[in-house]
């Protein structure tokens, strides 16, 4: 680097893989004072005020530096700065869960009388929260199939304030064209929120494609070890400032210890998503080759209707695959009980390979079940989240399940042991 005073630096920006590792690479450097290689963890909810003007200054201008933890916290702020750097955002905020991030952001921008257009097949509790706003807060919501941009264009109205997307979607793995849909929303003066949980910032950066806010459950791939519940949003300074104000009122601030675990988890994000994407692509191909399987969705499979869009907006295919059998839910049950070590589990995106059957969990409630029927999820759909175990072991266990379905047998009972 040219260190001549006044010289313009021609250093290239640090790559996301580097930003994900170094605590200070994206921070303002204030915590350098502590000289720790790892991010410091301050387990305190309060700070000494010094004198009255100093405390008032922290409250008014910089609560992240130490005022009261619901307003902001230095360890949480380090994690927020890292997420902003990875998302290519001016600012980012953390929450105590993905739903904390989603509900607080919606409350921050929507008013009675506003109209929202949302993709129809998004995370079940996001649907429920939008329906709650519609029943209780005078917000009107239309759910459409946003994989078809014409349906979004047709649903936009003069009072549409928000287009809410999720891509790849949970659990159907629908791929939505962020760039094309953001252009439609912008032409109508509406904001665009994108839940990017199934991809994460090393795979997909919604802001670079025209979205106003990138949201995610950081409990998944960002933290990555099934030990942290967290949510994140990233976007422009003004929008994030409005959401920060609402976070103070709704209260879902992230715990400092969870922030520290998140900072550590993010350090291996690039290693994990590469391994997961490679294995998931191989598993998706294996599923597609099985005569018992009637439906497979993986973003980078050429048979995915959104394959071309996925290749354009995602750097990797990610670790999530969904599939169904011609034999429906009965075949799914046979598949699950034949697996030797891959467990059924509610969440996703961690180092563990796990699977879930939404029909029996998220979509089992009456109101969501009816909505799920309207967007035609194949019966017995399996949502598979690929971890970082040996690819050969994962493929062998999946094949064991496929063989059991093909043979029409129950296979061996599901033992609690691991190892293939
Ligand atoms: C796509 C998506 N968005 C949001 C959430 C909610 O996140 P959390 O469980 O951290 O509240 C989830 C959780 O499964 C999810 O899959």
Structure description:
The chain has 420 residues and is an alpha/beta fold. It has 2 domains: 16-266, Aspartate Aminotransferase, domain 2, CATH 3.40.640.10; 269-407, Alpha-Beta Complex (Aspartate Aminotransferase, domain 1). Helices cover 38% and strands 13% of the residues. The protein contains 14 helices and 11 strands. The strands form 2 sheets. It has a 7-stranded mixed sheet, sandwiched between helices. A 4-stranded antiparallel sheet has the order 8-9-11-10. Strand 2, helix 5 (124-136) and strand 3 (140-144) form a beta-alpha-beta unit. Helix 10 packs parallel to helix 14 (391-407). It starts with 15 loop residues before the first helix and ends in a 13-residue tail after the last helix. Mean pLDDT is 91; it is low at 1-6 and 411-420. Bound molecules: pyridoxal-5'-phosphate. Residues 97-99, 123, 166, 170, 195, 197, 217, 219, 229, 231, 347 line the site of pyridoxal-5'-phosphate.
